[in-house]
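User:
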Amino acid sequence: MMSGAPLLLAEINAVDLRCHRRVNWQCEAGLNLLLGENGSGKTTLLEAVFLMGHGRSFRQARDPHLARHGVQNFSIDGRWTRYGPMHVQVGSGTNGVRIHLQGRLLQRRSDLNEALPVLVESPQAARLVDGIPAERRRWLDQMMLYCRPDLMRQYQAYLRCLMQRSRLMRKRAAESEIEIWEQQMAAHGLVIMQVRSELIAAMNDELQKENELCETRLSLRLQTSAPDSLEQWTRKLSGQRKQGQRILRIGPHCDRLQLDFGGRDIRAVGSRGQQKLAAIALRLAECRLRMQHRGLIPVLLLDDCFEALDSRRREGLTSRLLAHPGQVLMTGPALDRSVQQADIHCTTLATVGDEQSGYLENRMGRKTASVSLEEAA
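Assistant: Predicted structure:
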């Protein structure tokens, strides 16, 4: 059970963001479900929350594309609680996105990510389960640097040595000069490999707690490409160099992270529904691991998380998310019968003045106001 403090989003206001002319969403602690028809802009609201935590879109879209069609600028205003009230503003600027935290202009996006940890699972975000190995490796490194910020220098030094070695190989520099960079690269790489191994072991311990959700054992496995000693690593680098191999395929930048489902690669044996639950289980385990290192439970964004799930597994997922101590913001096209009686804070996304944009009732008998929205003409 997590004992950290949950990060909470209380309210978000967005103007001229993608399809929205103006939209306001008030959220509460616990599980928040945003309902609406296809194309109504539900994912865009999750994207706005992610923007406040990362300064970029999880859709990997370029900043100018975030503004509504025919409009130059957009703005997002959010009220958060992180041990105390916090105010975040994100908007278009001359040189891209401008971010203000507590009224102060931020120069680095990393400052925002540390202050407001937000995780997302969306078909349009990084595909951790069925995506390319580089996406899983990037995800692992981001989590590693968040949990172990003291490793940043080692990580940057490894990448610098890797680039210098490649540059010298292209110039056909002297072997003695290249060997200096190879020794440093191997030394930094061994540290990164050790921390990665410890992190994966910790993640696998957390994933065991999600066996009931996934209905089988879920685990991460790292396929490393480098030896576990400095001497063997430098000897292997030297051997590749003498064979004329310019592309380096040894080191943490080449490691492959695999997600096993019952001991086998989930991409080969898992159905779409099983892969969906596995991706959510990964994010839940990540929430706990980040909390253990920083003491703050991230906000979890789940876009269309009921997709490809039958009614029984929807009920199981809903029960699991309701037990999660952090705030969860999720989207869906309609309120499923299997979760109608759950204690979920439901909100309907509908055009202002539309007679169909009524209120939804949750199990507690309390009505939650619909989002006010003005769509583009």
